[in-house]
Amino acid sequence: MNRQKIVAIATGAISLLLAIVYLMFVQLLDFRGEMLPAPQSLLPPSIQIASLDSLPMPTNLPRDMAGRS
Q: Cα–Cα distance between 21 and 29 in angstroms, integer?
């Protein structure tokens, strides 16, 4: 057998092995059951601290950093 044929066979075998391992992994994840979302009562409440529009523009920055050219 020449080298190219050996490399092609080895590559195909590795590809098949990876495909079989992947399918087994997916089956294992699927076997765990249905994925349910987290209950809403256990999630922390979201709060808005500040919006960028309400923050004052700093006046002590150099002209190029303050957005004025």
A: 12
**Which residue shows structure tokens 């409440």?**
45
The per-residue pLDDT for range 19-45, each reduced to its tens digit, is: 999 999 999 988 888 878 777 776 667
Q: How many residues does the chain have?
A: 69
- In the DSSP assignment, the letter for residue 40 is G
Domain ranges of the chain: 1-34
Q: Is 1 exposed, middle or buried (0-12, 13-18, 19+ CB in 10 A)?
A: exposed
CB 57 within 8 A of CB 66: yes
